[in-house]
Automatic annotation (TrEMBL):
Its EC number is 1.2.1.27. InterPro entries: Ald_DH/histidinol_DH, Ald_DH_C, Ald_DH_CS_CYS, Ald_DH_N, Aldehyde_DH_dom, MeMal-semiAld_DH. The keyword Cell inner membrane does not apply. This is methylmalonate-semialdehyde dehydrogenase (CoA acylating).
Protein backbone atom coordinates (compact mmCIF):
# COMPACT_ATOMS: atom_id res chain seq x y z
CA UNK A 1 0.00 0.00 0.00
CA UNK A 2 1.48 3.33 -1.08
CA UNK A 3 1.81 5.83 1.77
CA UNK A 4 1.55 9.44 0.67
CA UNK A 5 3.42 12.23 2.45
CA UNK A 6 3.20 15.89 3.37
CA UNK A 7 5.45 18.36 1.54
CA UNK A 8 7.11 20.46 4.23
CA UNK A 9 10.25 22.59 3.97
CA UNK A 10 10.92 21.34 0.44
CA UNK A 11 10.86 17.66 1.42
CA UNK A 12 8.39 14.81 1.26
CA UNK A 13 7.74 14.12 4.93
CA UNK A 14 5.94 11.10 6.34
CA UNK A 15 2.94 11.69 8.59
CA UNK A 16 3.58 11.23 12.30
CA UNK A 17 0.04 11.42 13.71
CA UNK A 18 -0.65 7.74 13.03
CA UNK A 19 -3.92 8.70 11.33
CA UNK A 20 -4.57 8.12 7.61
CA UNK A 21 -7.42 8.47 5.09
CA UNK A 22 -7.99 5.95 2.31
CA UNK A 23 -7.50 7.29 -1.22
CA UNK A 24 -9.55 5.22 -3.67
CA UNK A 25 -9.40 4.41 -7.32
CA UNK A 26 -13.06 5.35 -7.85
CA UNK A 27 -13.28 3.27 -11.04
CA UNK A 28 -12.45 0.00 -9.28
CA UNK A 29 -13.39 0.85 -5.70
CA UNK A 30 -9.94 -0.23 -4.50
CA UNK A 31 -7.91 1.70 -1.97
CA UNK A 32 -4.80 2.84 -3.89
CA UNK A 33 -2.94 4.75 -1.19
CA UNK A 34 -3.09 6.16 2.30
CA UNK A 35 -3.07 9.88 2.93
CA UNK A 36 -1.56 11.07 6.21
CA UNK A 37 -3.77 13.27 8.38
CA UNK A 38 -1.67 15.92 10.08
CA UNK A 39 -1.70 16.74 13.77
CA UNK A 40 -1.67 20.29 15.11
CA UNK A 41 2.08 19.92 15.76
CA UNK A 42 2.79 18.95 12.15
CA UNK A 43 0.78 21.90 10.86
CA UNK A 44 2.46 24.31 13.27
CA UNK A 45 5.89 23.11 12.19
CA UNK A 46 5.06 23.97 8.57
CA UNK A 47 3.89 27.41 9.69
CA UNK A 48 7.22 28.06 11.45
CA UNK A 49 9.11 27.10 8.28
CA UNK A 50 6.83 29.33 6.17
CA UNK A 51 7.28 32.29 8.52
CA UNK A 52 11.07 31.93 8.32
CA UNK A 53 11.10 31.71 4.52
CA UNK A 54 8.58 34.48 3.74
CA UNK A 55 10.47 37.75 4.48
CA UNK A 56 13.16 37.13 1.84
CA UNK A 57 10.52 36.12 -0.72
CA UNK A 58 8.39 39.16 0.12
CA UNK A 59 11.46 41.33 -0.45
CA UNK A 60 12.23 39.69 -3.81
CA UNK A 61 11.18 42.05 -6.57
CA UNK A 62 7.86 41.14 -8.19
CA UNK A 63 9.39 40.62 -11.60
CA UNK A 64 11.59 37.85 -10.25
CA UNK A 65 8.61 36.28 -8.54
CA UNK A 66 6.73 36.49 -11.84
CA UNK A 67 9.57 34.66 -13.60
CA UNK A 68 9.03 31.70 -11.27
CA UNK A 69 5.40 31.68 -12.40
CA UNK A 70 6.50 31.79 -16.06
CA UNK A 71 8.68 28.75 -15.57
CA UNK A 72 5.93 26.99 -13.63
CA UNK A 73 3.59 27.43 -16.63
CA UNK A 74 6.19 25.76 -18.84
CA UNK A 75 6.54 22.86 -16.41
CA UNK A 76 2.77 22.42 -16.14
CA UNK A 77 2.57 22.09 -19.90
CA UNK A 78 5.54 19.71 -19.92
CA UNK A 79 3.93 17.45 -17.29
CA UNK A 80 0.30 17.91 -18.34
CA UNK A 81 -0.34 14.24 -19.17
CA UNK A 82 1.36 12.95 -16.04
CA UNK A 83 -0.61 15.35 -13.84
CA UNK A 84 -3.89 14.58 -15.60
CA UNK A 85 -3.39 10.85 -15.19
CA UNK A 86 -2.71 11.19 -11.46
CA UNK A 87 -5.73 13.46 -11.16
CA UNK A 88 -8.11 11.13 -13.00
CA UNK A 89 -6.93 8.07 -11.13
CA UNK A 90 -7.83 9.57 -7.73
CA UNK A 91 -10.80 11.74 -8.69
CA UNK A 92 -12.32 9.60 -11.44
CA UNK A 93 -12.97 12.39 -13.97
CA UNK A 94 -12.18 11.73 -17.63
CA UNK A 95 -8.70 12.42 -18.98
CA UNK A 96 -9.72 15.47 -21.11
CA UNK A 97 -11.66 16.85 -18.14
CA UNK A 98 -8.62 16.40 -15.88
CA UNK A 99 -6.58 18.39 -18.39
CA UNK A 100 -9.25 21.11 -18.25
CA UNK A 101 -8.91 21.14 -14.45
CA UNK A 102 -5.17 21.78 -14.80
CA UNK A 103 -5.61 24.25 -17.66
CA UNK A 104 -8.07 26.46 -15.74
CA UNK A 105 -5.53 26.62 -12.88
CA UNK A 106 -2.66 27.30 -15.28
CA UNK A 107 -4.53 30.30 -16.69
CA UNK A 108 -4.58 31.89 -13.24
CA UNK A 109 -0.83 31.29 -12.97
CA UNK A 110 -0.48 33.10 -16.33
CA UNK A 111 -2.49 36.01 -14.93
CA UNK A 112 -0.16 36.15 -11.92
CA UNK A 113 2.79 36.73 -14.26
CA UNK A 114 1.35 40.26 -14.34
CA UNK A 115 2.28 40.72 -10.66
CA UNK A 116 4.66 43.64 -11.27
CA UNK A 117 1.83 45.57 -12.90
CA UNK A 118 -0.88 44.35 -10.53
CA UNK A 119 1.13 45.24 -7.41
CA UNK A 120 1.88 48.82 -8.42
CA UNK A 121 0.75 51.24 -5.75
CA UNK A 122 -0.60 54.78 -6.00
CA UNK A 123 1.35 58.03 -5.77
CA UNK A 124 0.30 61.63 -5.30
CA UNK A 125 3.04 64.09 -6.02
CA UNK A 126 2.64 67.32 -4.02
CA UNK A 127 -0.29 66.35 -1.81
CA UNK A 128 0.68 69.45 0.22
CA UNK A 129 3.74 71.71 0.32
CA UNK A 130 6.72 69.35 0.05
CA UNK A 131 4.41 66.45 0.84
CA UNK A 132 4.06 63.25 -1.18
CA UNK A 133 1.60 60.49 -0.47
CA UNK A 134 1.92 56.94 -1.72
CA UNK A 135 0.47 53.53 -1.07
CA UNK A 136 2.13 50.15 -1.21
CA UNK A 137 0.57 46.71 -1.52
CA UNK A 138 2.49 44.46 0.82
CA UNK A 139 2.21 40.71 1.39
CA UNK A 140 0.31 39.46 4.43
CA UNK A 141 2.99 36.96 5.51
CA UNK A 142 1.76 33.38 5.80
CA UNK A 143 -1.49 32.42 4.06
CA UNK A 144 -3.31 29.10 4.02
CA UNK A 145 -5.84 27.42 1.74
CA UNK A 146 -8.23 24.51 2.24
CA UNK A 147 -9.48 22.96 -0.98
CA UNK A 148 -12.18 20.48 -2.11
CA UNK A 149 -11.83 17.17 -3.91
CA UNK A 150 -13.56 18.17 -7.14
CA UNK A 151 -10.84 20.39 -8.68
CA UNK A 152 -7.60 19.15 -7.09
CA UNK A 153 -5.39 21.11 -9.53
CA UNK A 154 -7.37 24.21 -10.42
CA UNK A 155 -8.49 25.42 -7.00
CA UNK A 156 -5.10 25.01 -5.26
CA UNK A 157 -3.55 27.02 -8.14
CA UNK A 158 -6.27 29.69 -7.85
CA UNK A 159 -5.04 30.20 -4.31
CA UNK A 160 -1.31 29.61 -4.19
CA UNK A 161 -0.39 31.36 -7.46
CA UNK A 162 -1.66 34.83 -6.45
CA UNK A 163 -0.61 34.33 -2.80
CA UNK A 164 2.98 33.58 -3.86
CA UNK A 165 3.05 36.20 -6.63
CA UNK A 166 2.14 38.77 -3.96
CA UNK A 167 5.11 37.67 -1.84
CA UNK A 168 3.42 35.45 0.74
CA UNK A 169 4.27 31.96 1.92
CA UNK A 170 1.40 29.51 1.40
CA UNK A 171 0.27 26.38 3.21
CA UNK A 172 -2.13 24.19 1.26
CA UNK A 173 -4.43 21.70 2.98
CA UNK A 174 -5.89 19.85 0.00
CA UNK A 175 -8.73 17.36 0.03
CA UNK A 176 -7.69 14.09 1.62
CA UNK A 177 -9.57 12.26 -1.15
CA UNK A 178 -7.19 13.24 -3.99
CA UNK A 179 -3.98 14.70 -2.56
CA UNK A 180 -1.40 13.52 -5.14
CA UNK A 181 -1.69 16.34 -7.67
CA UNK A 182 -1.31 19.09 -5.03
CA UNK A 183 1.90 17.37 -3.87
CA UNK A 184 3.15 17.25 -7.46
CA UNK A 185 2.34 20.94 -7.95
CA UNK A 186 4.40 21.92 -4.90
CA UNK A 187 7.37 20.00 -6.27
CA UNK A 188 6.96 21.65 -9.67
CA UNK A 189 6.87 25.13 -8.12
CA UNK A 190 10.25 24.44 -6.53
CA UNK A 191 11.60 23.09 -9.80
CA UNK A 192 10.43 26.40 -11.30
CA UNK A 193 12.62 28.29 -8.83
CA UNK A 194 10.46 28.87 -5.77
CA UNK A 195 12.65 28.73 -2.65
CA UNK A 196 11.88 25.93 -0.20
CA UNK A 197 9.34 26.46 2.55
CA UNK A 198 7.17 28.91 0.61
CA UNK A 199 4.66 26.41 -0.75
CA UNK A 200 3.97 23.52 1.58
CA UNK A 201 1.30 20.85 1.45
CA UNK A 202 -0.01 19.61 4.76
CA UNK A 203 -2.51 16.81 4.27
CA UNK A 204 -5.26 16.35 6.77
CA UNK A 205 -8.83 16.65 7.90
CA UNK A 206 -10.64 18.74 10.54
CA UNK A 207 -7.66 18.59 12.93
CA UNK A 208 -5.35 20.24 10.38
CA UNK A 209 -8.06 22.74 9.42
CA UNK A 210 -8.63 23.74 13.05
CA UNK A 211 -4.86 24.07 13.53
CA UNK A 212 -4.81 26.49 10.55
CA UNK A 213 -7.72 28.48 11.96
CA UNK A 214 -6.14 28.77 15.40
CA UNK A 215 -2.51 29.44 14.44
CA UNK A 216 -1.90 33.15 15.09
CA UNK A 217 0.89 33.41 12.48
CA UNK A 218 -1.45 32.57 9.60
CA UNK A 219 -2.91 35.84 8.35
CA UNK A 220 -5.42 34.70 5.76
CA UNK A 221 -7.42 31.59 4.97
CA UNK A 222 -9.06 30.67 1.69
CA UNK A 223 -11.60 27.86 1.60
CA UNK A 224 -13.54 26.15 -1.16
CA UNK A 225 -15.93 23.30 -0.35
CA UNK A 226 -19.40 22.62 1.00
CA UNK A 227 -21.51 25.35 2.60
CA UNK A 228 -21.67 24.04 6.20
CA UNK A 229 -17.86 23.81 6.38
CA UNK A 230 -17.49 27.19 4.62
CA UNK A 231 -19.71 28.78 7.25
CA UNK A 232 -17.79 27.12 10.08
CA UNK A 233 -14.37 28.14 8.73
CA UNK A 234 -15.50 31.70 8.08
CA UNK A 235 -16.80 32.09 11.64
CA UNK A 236 -13.82 30.56 13.41
CA UNK A 237 -11.22 32.18 11.15
CA UNK A 238 -12.77 35.65 11.43
CA UNK A 239 -13.17 35.43 15.19
CA UNK A 240 -9.45 34.63 15.34
CA UNK A 241 -8.77 37.87 13.49
CA UNK A 242 -7.84 36.41 10.11
CA UNK A 243 -8.80 37.57 6.67
CA UNK A 244 -11.07 34.80 5.35
CA UNK A 245 -12.83 34.00 2.08
CA UNK A 246 -14.99 30.88 1.85
CA UNK A 247 -16.72 29.56 -1.23
CA UNK A 248 -19.51 27.05 -0.60
CA UNK A 249 -21.96 24.80 -2.38
CA UNK A 250 -24.35 25.46 -5.22
CA UNK A 251 -27.69 24.69 -6.82
CA UNK A 252 -27.45 26.23 -10.26
CA UNK A 253 -30.63 26.86 -12.25
CA UNK A 254 -30.87 27.17 -16.02
CA UNK A 255 -33.94 29.01 -17.30
CA UNK A 256 -35.11 27.87 -20.72
CA UNK A 257 -37.36 30.40 -22.41
CA UNK A 258 -39.94 29.30 -25.02
CA UNK A 259 -37.94 31.00 -27.79
CA UNK A 260 -34.66 29.19 -26.97
CA UNK A 261 -33.01 26.96 -29.54
CA UNK A 262 -34.10 23.71 -27.90
CA UNK A 263 -31.29 21.56 -29.39
CA UNK A 264 -28.72 24.01 -28.12
CA UNK A 265 -30.36 24.16 -24.69
CA UNK A 266 -30.55 20.36 -24.43
CA UNK A 267 -26.90 19.93 -25.46
CA UNK A 268 -25.87 22.56 -22.92
CA UNK A 269 -27.87 20.90 -20.15
CA UNK A 270 -26.41 17.49 -20.83
CA UNK A 271 -22.83 18.80 -20.71
CA UNK A 272 -23.40 21.05 -17.71
CA UNK A 273 -25.55 18.59 -15.76
CA UNK A 274 -23.65 15.33 -16.27
CA UNK A 275 -20.06 16.40 -17.06
CA UNK A 276 -17.67 15.30 -14.29
CA UNK A 277 -20.60 13.18 -12.97
CA UNK A 278 -22.23 16.41 -11.79
CA UNK A 279 -19.41 16.97 -9.30
CA UNK A 280 -18.87 20.62 -10.23
CA UNK A 281 -19.87 23.65 -8.20
CA UNK A 282 -20.90 25.23 -11.49
CA UNK A 283 -22.87 22.18 -12.72
CA UNK A 284 -26.43 22.92 -13.73
CA UNK A 285 -28.60 20.79 -11.46
CA UNK A 286 -31.99 22.44 -12.04
CA UNK A 287 -33.58 23.01 -15.46
CA UNK A 288 -36.44 25.52 -15.40
CA UNK A 289 -38.38 25.49 -18.68
CA UNK A 290 -40.89 28.32 -18.94
CA UNK A 291 -44.32 26.98 -19.91
CA UNK A 292 -45.52 23.38 -20.18
CA UNK A 293 -45.06 23.30 -23.93
CA UNK A 294 -41.39 24.34 -23.55
CA UNK A 295 -40.96 21.73 -20.82
CA UNK A 296 -42.39 18.95 -22.99
CA UNK A 297 -40.17 19.91 -25.94
CA UNK A 298 -37.12 20.09 -23.69
CA UNK A 299 -37.71 16.70 -22.04
CA UNK A 300 -38.23 15.15 -25.48
CA UNK A 301 -34.83 16.47 -26.59
CA UNK A 302 -33.08 15.59 -23.33
CA UNK A 303 -34.10 11.96 -22.90
CA UNK A 304 -32.32 10.45 -25.93
CA UNK A 305 -29.22 12.52 -25.23
CA UNK A 306 -29.07 11.37 -21.61
CA UNK A 307 -29.74 7.75 -22.49
CA UNK A 308 -26.79 7.85 -24.90
CA UNK A 309 -24.31 9.09 -22.28
CA UNK A 310 -21.23 6.88 -21.95
CA UNK A 311 -20.14 6.28 -18.38
CA UNK A 312 -16.80 4.61 -17.69
CA UNK A 313 -13.26 4.75 -16.34
CA UNK A 314 -10.86 7.48 -17.49
CA UNK A 315 -8.64 4.79 -19.00
CA UNK A 316 -11.23 4.37 -21.76
CA UNK A 317 -10.04 7.74 -23.16
CA UNK A 318 -12.33 9.84 -25.32
CA UNK A 319 -15.03 7.15 -25.36
CA UNK A 320 -16.32 8.26 -21.99
CA UNK A 321 -18.56 11.25 -21.16
CA UNK A 322 -18.18 10.99 -17.43
CA UNK A 323 -16.58 8.76 -14.82
CA UNK A 324 -17.39 7.47 -11.36
CA UNK A 325 -18.15 9.67 -8.36
CA UNK A 326 -15.39 10.09 -5.84
CA UNK A 327 -16.27 7.64 -3.04
CA UNK A 328 -18.76 4.93 -2.08
CA UNK A 329 -20.18 7.36 0.49
CA UNK A 330 -20.82 9.97 -2.25
CA UNK A 331 -22.56 7.31 -4.36
CA UNK A 332 -24.72 6.26 -1.43
CA UNK A 333 -25.72 9.86 -0.68
CA UNK A 334 -26.68 10.47 -4.34
CA UNK A 335 -28.75 7.28 -4.55
CA UNK A 336 -30.45 8.17 -1.26
CA UNK A 337 -31.48 11.56 -2.62
CA UNK A 338 -32.74 9.98 -5.86
CA UNK A 339 -34.92 7.65 -3.79
CA UNK A 340 -36.24 10.65 -1.83
CA UNK A 341 -37.18 12.31 -5.13
CA UNK A 342 -39.19 9.24 -6.15
CA UNK A 343 -40.80 8.98 -2.69
CA UNK A 344 -41.72 12.66 -2.66
CA UNK A 345 -43.51 12.41 -5.99
CA UNK A 346 -41.09 13.67 -8.67
CA UNK A 347 -41.25 11.88 -12.03
CA UNK A 348 -38.06 9.90 -12.74
CA UNK A 349 -37.94 10.14 -16.55
CA UNK A 350 -34.47 8.64 -16.95
CA UNK A 351 -33.68 6.07 -14.26
CA UNK A 352 -30.00 5.12 -13.97
CA UNK A 353 -30.30 3.26 -10.70
CA UNK A 354 -29.57 -0.15 -12.22
CA UNK A 355 -26.41 1.06 -13.93
CA UNK A 356 -23.50 -1.35 -13.67
CA UNK A 357 -20.32 -1.51 -15.71
CA UNK A 358 -18.94 -4.89 -16.63
CA UNK A 359 -15.51 -5.40 -15.11
CA UNK A 360 -16.00 -2.40 -12.79
CA UNK A 361 -18.82 -3.67 -10.60
CA UNK A 362 -17.17 -2.31 -7.45
CA UNK A 363 -16.49 1.14 -8.94
CA UNK A 364 -18.43 4.17 -7.75
CA UNK A 365 -20.35 4.66 -10.99
CA UNK A 366 -23.78 6.28 -10.98
CA UNK A 367 -25.94 6.17 -14.09
CA UNK A 368 -27.54 9.39 -15.37
CA UNK A 369 -30.91 10.46 -13.94
CA UNK A 370 -33.48 12.97 -15.09
CA UNK A 371 -36.38 14.13 -12.94
CA UNK A 372 -39.40 16.04 -14.21
CA UNK A 373 -42.13 17.82 -12.21
CA UNK A 374 -39.85 18.53 -9.27
CA UNK A 375 -41.30 21.02 -6.75
CA UNK A 376 -39.41 23.40 -4.43
CA UNK A 377 -40.40 21.55 -1.26
CA UNK A 378 -38.56 18.35 -2.32
CA UNK A 379 -35.15 17.38 -0.92
CA UNK A 380 -33.77 16.91 -4.44
CA UNK A 381 -34.55 20.58 -5.09
CA UNK A 382 -33.32 21.99 -1.81
CA UNK A 383 -30.09 20.01 -1.42
CA UNK A 384 -26.97 19.91 -3.55
CA UNK A 385 -26.90 16.36 -4.95
CA UNK A 386 -23.41 16.63 -6.51
CA UNK A 387 -24.09 13.72 -8.83
CA UNK A 388 -25.36 13.00 -12.36
CA UNK A 389 -28.93 14.03 -11.60
CA UNK A 390 -30.84 16.83 -13.32
CA UNK A 391 -34.10 18.08 -11.82
CA UNK A 392 -36.70 19.83 -13.96
CA UNK A 393 -38.94 22.38 -12.25
CA UNK A 394 -41.66 23.67 -14.56
CA UNK A 395 -42.39 27.40 -14.29
CA UNK A 396 -45.53 29.02 -15.67
CA UNK A 397 -43.85 32.33 -16.53
CA UNK A 398 -40.51 34.09 -16.75
CA UNK A 399 -41.22 35.92 -13.48
CA UNK A 400 -41.93 32.61 -11.73
CA UNK A 401 -38.67 31.11 -13.07
CA UNK A 402 -36.70 34.16 -11.96
CA UNK A 403 -38.26 34.09 -8.49
CA UNK A 404 -37.49 30.38 -8.12
CA UNK A 405 -33.77 30.90 -8.72
CA UNK A 406 -33.76 34.01 -6.56
CA UNK A 407 -35.48 32.29 -3.62
CA UNK A 408 -33.00 29.38 -3.48
CA UNK A 409 -30.50 29.83 -0.67
CA UNK A 410 -27.56 29.06 -2.99
CA UNK A 411 -26.32 31.65 -5.46
CA UNK A 412 -23.23 30.38 -7.24
CA UNK A 413 -24.08 30.29 -10.94
CA UNK A 414 -27.09 30.40 -13.26
CA UNK A 415 -27.92 30.62 -16.95
CA UNK A 416 -30.70 31.68 -19.26
CA UNK A 417 -31.32 30.24 -22.73
CA UNK A 418 -33.25 32.58 -24.99
CA UNK A 419 -33.10 34.44 -28.30
CA UNK A 420 -34.59 37.53 -26.68
CA UNK A 421 -32.01 40.14 -25.72
CA UNK A 422 -34.45 41.96 -23.50
CA UNK A 423 -35.22 38.88 -21.38
CA UNK A 424 -31.52 38.07 -21.10
CA UNK A 425 -30.67 41.61 -20.09
CA UNK A 426 -33.43 41.73 -17.49
CA UNK A 427 -32.31 38.38 -16.07
CA UNK A 428 -28.65 39.43 -15.78
CA UNK A 429 -29.64 42.69 -14.08
CA UNK A 430 -32.12 41.31 -11.53
CA UNK A 431 -30.85 37.87 -10.54
CA UNK A 432 -29.19 37.65 -7.09
CA UNK A 433 -26.54 35.14 -8.17
CA UNK A 434 -22.81 35.75 -8.61
CA UNK A 435 -22.11 34.25 -12.05
CA UNK A 436 -24.58 34.45 -14.92
CA UNK A 437 -24.54 32.80 -18.33
CA UNK A 438 -26.52 34.04 -21.31
CA UNK A 439 -26.75 31.06 -23.65
CA UNK A 440 -23.65 29.80 -21.80
CA UNK A 441 -24.38 26.95 -19.39
CA UNK A 442 -21.29 27.06 -17.15
CA UNK A 443 -20.29 30.72 -16.88
CA UNK A 444 -16.96 30.29 -15.09
CA UNK A 445 -15.21 33.63 -15.50
CA UNK A 446 -11.74 33.61 -17.04
CA UNK A 447 -8.62 34.20 -14.93
CA UNK A 448 -8.56 37.97 -15.40
CA UNK A 449 -12.12 38.34 -14.13
CA UNK A 450 -13.17 37.16 -10.68
CA UNK A 451 -15.01 34.04 -9.54
CA UNK A 452 -17.52 33.96 -6.70
CA UNK A 453 -21.11 33.22 -5.80
CA UNK A 454 -23.64 35.08 -3.65
CA UNK A 455 -25.91 34.08 -0.77
CA UNK A 456 -24.87 30.80 0.93
CA UNK A 457 -22.37 30.08 -1.84
CA UNK A 458 -19.89 32.65 -0.54
CA UNK A 459 -18.78 34.04 2.79
CA UNK A 460 -16.44 37.00 2.56
CA UNK A 461 -15.86 40.10 0.52
CA UNK A 462 -13.41 39.39 -2.25
CA UNK A 463 -13.75 36.86 -5.05
CA UNK A 464 -11.20 34.36 -6.27
CA UNK A 465 -8.61 35.18 -8.96
CA UNK A 466 -8.53 38.28 -11.15
CA UNK A 467 -7.86 41.64 -9.47
CA UNK A 468 -9.64 40.55 -6.26
CA UNK A 469 -6.97 37.93 -5.55
CA UNK A 470 -4.29 40.62 -5.52
CA UNK A 471 -6.37 42.53 -2.98
CA UNK A 472 -7.02 39.46 -0.84
CA UNK A 473 -3.34 38.50 -0.62
CA UNK A 474 -1.96 41.98 0.09
CA UNK A 475 -2.60 44.78 2.53
CA UNK A 476 -2.29 48.46 1.78
CA UNK A 477 0.13 50.75 3.53
CA UNK A 478 -0.14 54.47 2.84
CA UNK A 479 2.83 56.73 3.46
CA UNK A 480 2.66 60.51 3.86
CA UNK A 481 6.15 61.99 3.61
CA UNK A 482 7.54 65.51 4.01
CA UNK A 483 11.16 66.41 3.61
CA UNK A 484 13.01 68.79 6.01
CA UNK A 485 12.82 71.96 3.93
CA UNK A 486 9.03 71.88 4.29
CA UNK A 487 8.91 71.18 8.04
CA UNK A 488 7.81 74.13 10.16
CA UNK A 489 8.85 74.71 13.72
CA UNK A 490 6.57 73.78 16.62
CA UNK A 491 4.04 71.00 17.07
CA UNK A 492 0.74 70.78 15.26
CA UNK A 493 -2.27 69.75 17.29
CA UNK A 494 -5.13 69.66 14.85
CA UNK A 495 -5.95 67.29 12.00
CA UNK A 496 -4.87 69.40 9.08
CA UNK A 497 -6.18 69.74 5.59
CA UNK A 498 -3.30 69.80 3.08
CA UNK A 499 -2.84 73.45 2.17
P1 LIG B 1 -15.99 19.47 1.81
O1 LIG B 1 -16.61 20.66 2.42
O2 LIG B 1 -16.37 18.12 2.32
O3 LIG B 1 -14.39 19.54 1.97
C1 LIG B 1 -13.66 20.67 1.59
C2 LIG B 1 -12.42 20.78 2.46
O4 LIG B 1 -12.82 20.93 3.82
C3 LIG B 1 -11.52 19.54 2.41
O5 LIG B 1 -10.18 19.97 2.37
C4 LIG B 1 -11.85 18.82 3.70
O6 LIG B 1 -10.75 18.10 4.21
C5 LIG B 1 -12.22 19.93 4.65
N1 LIG B 1 -13.21 19.51 5.65
C6 LIG B 1 -14.17 18.55 5.50
N2 LIG B 1 -14.89 18.44 6.63
C7 LIG B 1 -14.39 19.34 7.51
C8 LIG B 1 -14.72 19.70 8.85
N3 LIG B 1 -15.73 19.12 9.50
N4 LIG B 1 -14.01 20.68 9.43
C9 LIG B 1 -13.00 21.29 8.79
N5 LIG B 1 -12.64 20.98 7.51
C10 LIG B 1 -13.33 20.02 6.87
O7 LIG B 1 -16.23 19.58 0.23
P2 LIG B 1 -15.88 18.52 -0.89
O8 LIG B 1 -16.82 17.37 -0.80
O9 LIG B 1 -14.43 18.24 -0.93
O10 LIG B 1 -16.22 19.38 -2.21
C11 LIG B 1 -17.50 19.48 -2.74
C12 LIG B 1 -18.19 20.76 -2.31
O11 LIG B 1 -17.40 21.89 -2.66
C13 LIG B 1 -19.52 20.98 -3.01
O12 LIG B 1 -20.44 21.49 -2.08
C14 LIG B 1 -19.20 22.01 -4.08
O13 LIG B 1 -20.30 22.78 -4.51
C15 LIG B 1 -18.20 22.84 -3.36
N6 LIG B 1 -17.38 23.61 -4.28
C16 LIG B 1 -17.58 24.96 -4.34
C17 LIG B 1 -16.85 25.73 -5.22
C18 LIG B 1 -17.04 27.21 -5.29
O14 LIG B 1 -16.20 27.88 -5.87
N7 LIG B 1 -18.09 27.76 -4.72
C19 LIG B 1 -15.90 25.11 -6.04
C20 LIG B 1 -15.70 23.73 -5.94
C21 LIG B 1 -16.46 22.99 -5.06
Amino acid sequence: MKELTHYIGGEHVKGTSGRFADVFNPATGEVQSKCPLASTEELNKAVDIAAAAQPAWGATNPQRRARVMMEFVRLLNRDMDKLAEALSSEHGKTFPDAKGDIQRGLEVVEYCIGAPQLLKGEFTDGAGPGIDMYSMKQPLGVSAGITPFNFPAMIPMWMFAPALACGNAFILKPSERDPSVPLMLAELMEEAGLPKGLLQVVNGDKDAVDAILDNPVIQSVGFVGSTPIAEYIYGRGCSNGKRVQCFGGAKNHMIIMPDADMDQAADALVGAGYGAAGERCMAISVAVPVGDETADRLIEKLVPRIEKLKVGPFTAGNDVDYGPVVTAAAKEKILGLIQSGVDQGAELVVDGRDFSLQGYENGFFVGPHLFDKVTPDMDIYQQEIFGPVLSTVRAASYEEALKLAMDHEMGNGTAIYTRDGDAARDFAARINIGMVGVNVPIPVPLAYHTFGGWKKSMFGDLNQHGPDAFKFYTRTKTVTSRWPSGIKEGGEFNFKAMD
